[in-house]
Structure formats: C-alpha cells, structure tokens
Amino acid sequence: MTDERPAPRRALITGASLGIGAAFARRLAADGWELILVARDAGRLEATAAELTRRYERRIDTIPADLSTDDGCAAVERRLAAEPPVGMLVNNAGISLNTSFVRSAVEDEARLLRLNVLAVLRLTHAALGPMVRRGNGAVINISSVAGFGVPMPGSTYSASKAWVTNFSESIGQSVAPLGVRVMALCPGYTRTGYHERAGIDMSRTRAWMWLRTDDVVDEGLRDLRKGKLVSVPSWKYKLAAAGLRHLPRRLLRGASRDTRGRIGRVGD
Ligand code: NAP
C-alpha cells in the first residue's frame, strides 16, 4: 500500500565531489533537483556544493562521510530515512586497489568490499523503504563493464562490480511493480582524473576507449526513464558487454591475461 505522494526532486549522490558523481550533481542541479552530496574530503565537498549553488541556485547539502566505515554509512542511512524525502539515490563512490590480491593488504581488500558492496547494499536498503511506501523513487548504482564477469587476474574489483550489477538487476525487478526503479549503470573507461590521481599509467589505453562523464550520466538517466535495469553507455561498450556475456569463459580468460600488470584499475 503506497501513500501516493509525488516523487521528491531531491537526490543524494555519493562520491559527488569528483568524476562521475560530480557530473551527476551538475546534471541534476541543472535539471532543478535539490542535492545532498557525500564524500570524505569535507573541504572539496563544500567547494563542489558552493560552485553548484552559485551556478544553479539550488539547495545543496553535504554529508562528509567515509562510506567504507560503519559510522559513515549510518550517517547517510539516517538522512535517507529522514524528511524531507530523497527521490533519487546515486551510489557512485567506489575504488579499486591497483595491486594484485596476493600483494594487497587484507585490510585494503576488506575496505574495497565495504565501499563497493556493503555501502551500496546498506544505502539502497535505507532508500527503498520510504520510496516503496511512497510508490516512487529511483536508485542508480554505478557498476562497471568489468562487472560482466571479466576475470581480471588477481583483482577483486570486477568481482565487486559483478555483485553490484546482479544486485541492482535483482532488486530492480522486485521493486519495479511498486513504482520504484533500481538500475545498474555500467560505464567502461571514463575520463575522471581517477587514473592520474592514483598514478596509474593509462598510456596503452586507446583514445576511442574513453567515455566522457557527461555522456555516461546522460545515457544513464535516459535508460532509467526507459525503465532499464542495466545501462551500458555507448555502442562500443554495449558491444563489448554483449561479447563478455556470451563469449566462452576460456576465451575471456585468455584475453584478460593481457591485463596482467595493469590490474585493478577503476574501469578495467
Ligand atoms: P573518482 O573520480 O576517483 O571519484 C571518486 C569519488 O568518490 C570522489 O568524490 C571521492 O571523494 C569519493 N570517495 C572515494 N572513496 C570514498 C569513501 N570511502 N567514502 C565516501 N566517498 C568516497 O571516481 P570515478 O572515476 O568518478 O568513479 C566513480 C564510480 O564509477 C566508481 O564506483 C567506479 O568504480 C566507477 N567506474 C569508473 C570508471 C572510470 O573509468 N573512471 C569506469 C567504470 C566504473 P573523497 O576522496 O573526498 O572521498
């Protein structure tokens, strides 16, 4: 039974101070949404909020929080359960380790899992309660083409994104009849500055393989309106995703051996 209030135009975006999350913030502010922005670095978050307020004259709130921690997740869960209500959640914050599983510290692997998987689960759960009661709302979980079962030797990033895609598709199916949408957005390589900041050499990645953040956001929001459960921006990555879904695993493993030494990057 829903209370049939109209969908609130207020979005909460995690990892909103840089990259794909910041592009979501710009696009939604331009479209008239109020925003709640989440990231760890409070100074950078405030600067992002101030710039958006100046440009679009919208109400922008911030929650500085580390979503790989219990306290960070709890702070954002409290806001998702509170009034005024949130009409859209974008679970965007995510990391990779840029080191192989055997060389990484198990604490870092656990941190990746808490941010890429547990925080997505907790915040989706917190958002869906009020959305289902109202009978409207949307959750976009930023996954990756790497989540289509690409075996990346020694990396746990693709496993975490495989979880995000499957989770979003499964939950999206179950809440669609209740008026609520959950969608996995699965970009390929996207220019966000992440790789430069992490000191990852991307010189071997061809120019045509890079997506623009604004295009990823545009296509994601278009697919959400169409009611898709999984969105793969750009025809080239749609083709790649289709191949990854249908190629024999043996061939995939052979191809992915080439990524050895470039393991675990965001977007791999
Ligand atoms: P980015 O440019 O590195 O930005 C990451 C954002 O997340 C920043 O705002 C960062 O701010 C925040 N963040 C990082 N760790 C956090 C934590 N523990 N708690 C809260 N916020 C945190 O990343 P991006 O390239 O835009 O990637 C965004 C998402 O897209 C990720 O889920 C990534 O896996 C996915 N993706 C990226 C690519 C690509 O090629 N870029 C491709 C496919 C999928 P603070 O550092 O201040 O916390």
Helix content class: 40-55%
- What's the arrangement of strands in the largest beta sheet? 3-2-1-4-5-6-9
Strand-and-helix sequence, N→C? EHEHEHEHEHEEHEHEHH
CATH topology title: Rossmann fold
Low-confidence stretches: 260-268
Number of domains: 1
Structural class: alpha/beta
Principal-axes geometry comes out as globular
Question: What is the strand tally?
Answer: 9
If helices are DSSP runs of H or I spanning 4 or more residues, what is the number of helices?
A: 9
Q: Quick one: biggest sheet?
A: 7 strands, parallel
CATH architecture: 3-Layer(aba) Sandwich
Determine the mean pLDDT. Answer: 91
Q: Per DSSP, what share of the residues sits in E-state strands of 2 or more residues?
A: 5-15%
Task: Calculate Rg over CA atoms.
Answer: 18 Å
Distinct small molecules bound, one entry per kind: NADP nicotinamide-adenine-dinucleotide phosphate
Termini separation: 43 Å
CATH class: Alpha Beta
CATH evolutionary superfamily = NAD(P)-binding Rossmann-like Domain
